[in-house]
Amino acid sequence: MAEDNSKQYIEVRLGNDLYGIEIKYIDSIIVMHNITRVPKAQSYFLGVINLRGEVIPVMSLSRRLGVDENEFTSATRIIIIKPEPQSAPVGMIVDEVNEVITLDEADIQKMNYDENDSASAYSLGIGKLGDNLINILNIPEIAGKED
Amino acid sequence: MDVSQYLEIFIEETKEHLQSLNSHILILEKEPENESTINEIFRAAHSLKGMSGTMGYTKMQHLTHVMENVFSEIRNGKMKATSELVDVLFKGLDILESYLAAIQADGTEGNLDSEDIINALNNILNTGLGVADPDSGPSKSLAGEITMVPPSENEKEKFRYLKLEEHEKKAIAKALSLDLNVIGLTIYIQEYCVLKGARAFMVNRTLEEHGEIIKLDPSAQDLEDEKYDFDYSAFLITKETPENIINYAMSVSEVKEVVADYIRLSKDELDTYLNAIKQEEALISSPKPAVEPGSLKAGGAAPARQTTKPIANRSVRVDIEKLDGLMNLVSELIIAKNSLVSSSSALHNQLDMTFFDQMEYLERVTTNLHESVMRVRMVPIENVVNRFPRMIRDLSKSLNKQMELYMTGEETELDRTVIDEIGDPLMHLLRNAADHGLESSEERIRLGKDPVGSIFLDAYQDGNNVVIEVRDDGAGINTEKIKKKAIDKGVITEEQVARMTDKDIIDILFMPSFSTSENVTDVSGRGVGLDVVKTKIEALGGDIEAKTKEGQGSNFIIRLPLTLAIIQALMVKISDEKYALPLGNIQTVENIFHKDIKKVNGKEVLNLRGDVIPIIRLGEILDCPNVEDREQVLVVVVKKGERYAGMVVDELIGQLEIVISSIGKYIKNHRIISGATILGNGEVALILDVNSLI
Question: With contacts defined as CB-CB under 8 Å, which chain A residues touch B682?
Answer without folding.
Answer: 34, 50
